[in-house]
Batch of 4 targets.
Target 1
Amino acid sequence: MYHFVSKAIGLSPTEAAKTSGWDDISDKIPYLSIGMSSTTNPFDIPARKTAMAGPKRDQILDAAERMIRDRGFNGVSFRDLAHDVGIKSASVHYHFPTKADLGAAVARRYTERFVDALGDPEDADAIPTLIEAFRTSLARDQLMCLCGMLAAESGGLPDPVVSETRRFFERTEDWLSAALSASPALGDPTAASRLLAELEGAMLVARAHGDVSVFDRIVAPHIRQPETAHETSPERAGG
């Protein structure tokens, strides 16, 4: 697993996030990884594993999502999942007869959670919210976008997994198109695809460098800067 360098030396990743200017936005986003709340410490992997609640099927999906986002679909085995959840491999097969069934279910659930977490595309903070969802994967989760990982492997994936991966990009692009339509400067037919590609690529490059600030630099042009009120001086007002 990769660990990202913080520009704020001596601070934990969580503390560094608070000093980076992203904290106000990240508070609005549910923690997307394995269905945990945003108040859960994402670096506390052992606690996260033992605290998983609900039926075994959900626990298997949680473990599979985390592993795929870290090492890819082809790097996950039913044996790994069984060990992580604390069950026998036969129990994994009971819920998901094939790996294709498992991969499709993980991607389908991830897509629904991701789009739901983004909220209303017409909100003023829609685009920053999307960007922070990707950034959170790097800075807090230490993981890649699930469907970005799957897309990179799509040439060797079962058809059901490829279909669900494509669905993620279609739904996210639809959401982005709606968000960008409010901006004449960005509302062109390719804007949503280009921005999504840029975010996925920024995650990849930042992960290769092990430095989330690389992601920040790449996406910086898409972050709306706070408007500063300019008061007119008496001299200017008088002409």
Target 2
Amino acid sequence: MNSNSQPDVSGQTNIGSPVQGQSDVAPQAPQQREVQPADPSPIGVQSQAPEQSNVSFPALGQPVLIAKSNVTADVTVNPNAQRQALGQLKLRKSVTSLSDDELGLLREAFRKMMAISDNRGYQYYAGIHGLPLQHCVHHRPLFIPWHRAYLYFFGQALQDQVAGVTVPWWDWSSEQAHQEGVPQAFTDDHVNGQPNPLCKFHIKLTTRLTTIDRDTRRFPGNPSKLPDSNKIEKLLSLSNFTDFANSLEDIHNSIHFWTGGRQGDMASIPTAAYDPIFWAHHSMVDRLWYLWQLRHNNNGMPSQMLGQVLVPFNMTVADTLDIHKLGYEYASSAVFTVRSV
């Protein structure tokens, strides 16, 4: 049973632009990660509520200006530790290829994170992107590495709850996506008689300017309006990193807007990461960057970016360039052929 309902909010800050043709819906590896189960700040962030609750996207190429909390970043990470312990890379798979058992473990990990009210919990990690911490980076080349770091830490938090779980990717360019839209794994209200934690999350937070106490909402558009494999092929064929990064972010933005609709959470920066589909979407975005890296046989990152710290994570851009050093790999896909150019 689908959980979508009629929108009843206004004044959301939208991400990007609607999908074209859509109407109405609208240099070293990091060090050991030191996180204790009772640590109130597992990624080393201490903050207060921001001075503003709305964030708008500027024109492409301009920096995002947001109200920052008083933050100290003190994260240390050893992305190789778990991989070395297990002797293998962890595979991120397409959500549609997960077995029933794998889906069950993923739901269990989300459910456990959602039940934690301290800084190890789901609400805390979602709040890094939007309210209340608002650290997300968009419309700058740092968009790609920042979100890789963010997804990495979220994946580690899931694995703290259920060992071996990884964040699957939602291939919104696939033929199946063009038929069903949001994967069924993320739309069923209940599974085996239990609430499905991949469907929605109850946001409960208060900042200086707003209080939110409700379930996440999404109002997806027509699946035929999603990007297709031809558009992704054109994206991957771009040889310049900046051109690729800008084009990837534009596609990324359109998926946020398509999924959330005009008044859904995925289309609003302050609440986007609270919707569980956010993570599968960004796993797809991260996968596309990885495929681009493989195809062009280089990272293509401007050298002046490499030393930049990805706040609030104590990781630099250089630390994100090799996903194998971060301990994961993407399962093979029949859709795109890796080629050197």
Target 3
Amino acid sequence: MSEQSELQKRAAALTEATERALASLESYTCTIVMRDRIKGKLMPESQLYTQYRKPGAVYLRWVGEQHRGMQASYVPGRDDEGYFMARESGLKGLIGARTWPQSSPLINTLYPHHFSISESSVVALTQTTLELQRRAHSLGKLRLESLCTLHDEELDAPVTKVVAQLSDDPGDGLRWPRCTLFICERHHLPLHVRLDDFDGGLFGEYVYRDFRPNVVVDESWFALPKR
């Protein structure tokens, strides 16, 4: 068996464990650290407290210096596809929560980002990453560069690090050419993800810290009450 075949066999076992973990994940809370690079410019780091529950409800509250106190949520059945609810911090928040289209030029100008509210969950990001890997494999482009165990300082936890080259051709329609997954050994989920861009720089890096799976979430938070 070639080295690449051996890496793919080990990666397939990891993927199966991740898919089982996703299937059993009903809810979670954590703090997300986001580092986006938009149009070649690294955006200020964002830190967000989040609650998630199936089938895709997401609550976010900015807790770092960037946009501190702002809240947003997406709830399937409440929000139409492509829409979400948000509430500003401070005096602007006194007017209450408002529904916004994700495609709003105002939102994209004031809060540049790669992923929508509904795409920000570890569930959505993992599913998207695995789907792109499957598409790269079907194109004959997927190549695993490395697979190793280590202690991840971002998570302060043991992980399996998987580096995958998807495709360096933007014409293949894959959102990013290369990804690095840090799969937490305890939760079997990629709680730290680094995505590269086609210019060789960073696309984005996302860390899900203090991850607590299958906890009771407060449903009232999705309505974005004043806090």
Target 4
Amino acid sequence: MDVAPGDYLQQLVNDMAAESAEARRMVAIRARAEKLTFTQQSPDGTVRVTVNRAGAVIDLAFADSAGRLDPRRLSGTVMGAIRQAKAGIAAQYERIVRESGVAEATADRLIGRFRSAQPHPVAPQAAQPWPQPTPPPIVPPPPAPQRPARPAPQEAEDDFGDTFTVLQRGYRKP
């Protein structure tokens, strides 16, 4: 199979042009993907979460009604919105890659790499709310200890014989 030198050179130029076009498409994908964010609001409107292309939460906002929710329900709503936002960012990236015009094999490879780099979301049925601590049992305080009764004052026997008051004026005997 002999190829004429002119045909070989033309084939090489065509291959290089195709590779160059593919490289330009890849650069365009990267530029669009670097700015990629996705915002998801919960169905009841209490939570709005925004994730970046890596799936990290970059914004989390609560409506006023969130303060009236049970903490377990609120945490489930937040986690659900995060899961949906991460799924949305993956779908958005896939759309960017498919619309870029890269070869199908290249698109599949890029999308596969993107999905494998994302943290694996917890399935909704496997997500459990934080366990609530069991409050300690209420035990009444022990009764205060009884003080022993004060002994009755005893009359001290002294050597003075009669009662003598020192604190009165004149130090006289009563």
